[in-house]
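Worked example 3 (structure in, sequence out).
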């Protein structure tokens, strides 16, 4: 069986990805609205909702074997 990720790893990955994504959202919102206050507000709300969504998404995918390859067992080597 393939190694599974611990839930805290998924959380750290979610937070690091969302910080990057939120900076992008704030920049795009500012370019569209021309208002920094609105851009930061949109980014702040988006930060928390998408962290939660990503975490749930990651934990669901962690339960699936789709696309995983089981490591070779040490007992199966032919000499």
């Amino acid at each position: 069986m393939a190694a599974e990720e611990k839930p805290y790893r998924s959380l750290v990955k979610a937070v690091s990805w969302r910080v990057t994504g939120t900076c992008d959202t704030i920049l795009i919102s500012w370019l569209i609205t021309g208002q920094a206050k609105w851009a930061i507000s949109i980014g702040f709300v988006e930060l928390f909702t998408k962290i939660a969504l990503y975490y749930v998404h990651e934990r669901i995918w962690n339960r699936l074997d789709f696309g995983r390859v089981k490591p070779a067992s040490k007992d199966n080597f032919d000499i």
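Notes: DSSP finds two helices and no strands in the chain. The chain has a mean pLDDT of 85.
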